[in-house]
């Protein structure tokens, strides 16, 4: 393995797709800045990633809070660290009808899935533009391609991430900075537990879930190629293609049926 001597900043790096992405970068000789809230998990993952012979910095931040996003980048600047790659992986959802869900939790999700991503990307771009190089990987979702009854705020946030990422990809095309958006489908991570979604028909059969390692590899390769977007998995590509052929209202009805509780309530 050849050391790249370049830092990759990864949010949500201690579990799921973020963890698998961190492993991909570590295997390929990149130094890591891993960000999550859990100190203990960060410490474990830092020890694990160091076994690849790379430098690893762990930073505990609560990215629901704007001040902590700013302080994350301030710490890097104070230590004269300019990441070459930014991976905005951290994200959450909440399951249930919008009329019933907790608005405070939903505002936290919007802060994490949108506001933190915008802030980190803005700070990264401002830092990297004078250097004329950099890569950004934003985690959207195939959920961002369709309306999502029973999971409406999550689908909405991922629709924003996808549209906005494609826009800045175009704006930055002559700058040396690339923006790639990864669209996973249903993936075998802790996401569904955190979203209180285990009662949904959508995940009755856990064997249908993609492996986070496969999704991460798709994202890593697309990022290295400078691709605009990548839908991970043939099944998801076909699903998105079919959704594009019918009206949004018909898609919403179909998704509502797929995502409703197993009990049918």
From TrEMBL:
The keyword Oxidoreductase applies. Transmembrane segments: none annotated. Pfam families: adh_short (PF00106). Keywords: Oxidoreductase. One of its GO terms (cellular component) is membrane. InterPro entries: NAD(P)-bd_dom_sf (IPR036291), SDR_fam (IPR002347). One of its GO terms (molecular function) is oxidoreductase activity. SUPFAM superfamilies: NAD(P)-binding Rossmann-fold domains. The keyword Transcription regulation does not apply. Belongs to the short-chain dehydrogenases/reductases (SDR) family. PANTHER family: DEHYDROGENASE/REDUCTASE SDR FAMILY MEMBER 7B, SHORT-CHAIN DEHYDROGENASE-RELATED. This is SDR family NAD(P)-dependent oxidoreductase.
């Amino acid at each position: 393995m050849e050391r790249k001597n370049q830092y990759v900043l990864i949010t949500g790096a201690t579990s799921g797709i973020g963890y698998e992405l961190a492993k991909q970068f570590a295997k390929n000789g990149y130094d890591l800045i891993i960000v999550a809230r859990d100190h203990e998990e960060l410490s474990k993952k830092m020890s694990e990633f160091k076994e690849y012979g790379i430098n690893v910095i762990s930073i505990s931040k609560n990215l629901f809070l704007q001040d902590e996003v700013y302080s994350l980048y301030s710490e890097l600047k104070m230590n004269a660290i300019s990441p070459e790659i930014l991976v905005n992986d951290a994200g959450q959802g909440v399951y249930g009808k919008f009329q019933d869900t907790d608005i405070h939790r939903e505002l936290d999700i919007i802060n994490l899935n949108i506001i933190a991503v915008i802030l980190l990307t803005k700070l990264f771009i401002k830092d990297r533009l004078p250097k004329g190089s950099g890569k950004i990987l934003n985690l959207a979702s195939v959920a961002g391609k369709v309306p999502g009854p029973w999971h409406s705020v999550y689908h909405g946030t991922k629709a924003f991430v996808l549209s906005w990422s494609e826009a800045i990809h175009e704006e930055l095309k002559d700058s040396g900075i690339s923006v790639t958006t990864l669209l996973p489908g249903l993936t075998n991570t802790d996401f569904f537990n955190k979203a209180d979604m285990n009662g949904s028909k959508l995940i009755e059969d856990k064997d249908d879930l993609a492996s986070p390692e496969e999704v991460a590899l798709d994202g890593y390769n697309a990022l290295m190629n400078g691709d605009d977007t990548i839908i991970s998995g043939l099944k998801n590509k076909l699903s998105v293609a079919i959704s594009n052929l019918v009206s949004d209202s018909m898609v919403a009805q179909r998704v509502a049926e797929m995502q409703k509780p197993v009990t049918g309530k």
